[in-house]
Amino acid sequence: MRNFCAVTFVCVLVTQSTSYGQGFVLSGLGATNRSMAGAGTAAPLDAIGALHWNPASITALPQSRFDVSAEAVFNRNEVESRVGIGTPFEFGGVTSSDNGAAVLPAIGTVIHDPNSIFTYGLGLNTIGGFSVNFPGDPTNPVLAPPAVGGLGAAYSRFGVVQVAPTISAQVTERLSIGIAPTINIAEAQARPFPFSAPNDANGDTVLSYPVGIGAQPTWGLGVQVGAFYEAENWSMGMSVKSPQWFQSFKINAEDELGLPTPVNVDLSYPLIVSWGVATKPMERLLLALDVRYVDFASTKLFGSSAAFGADGSVTGLGWKSVFFVALGAQYELTDRIRLRGGYSYSQNPISNQDAMFSIQAPAPYQHLTGLGASVDVTDNLEFTLTWVHAFENSVTGPIVTPAGPMPLSMVRVGQEVDSAVMAVSYTF
Question: How many Cβ atoms sit within 10 Å of the Cβ of residue 224?
Answer without folding.
Answer: 26
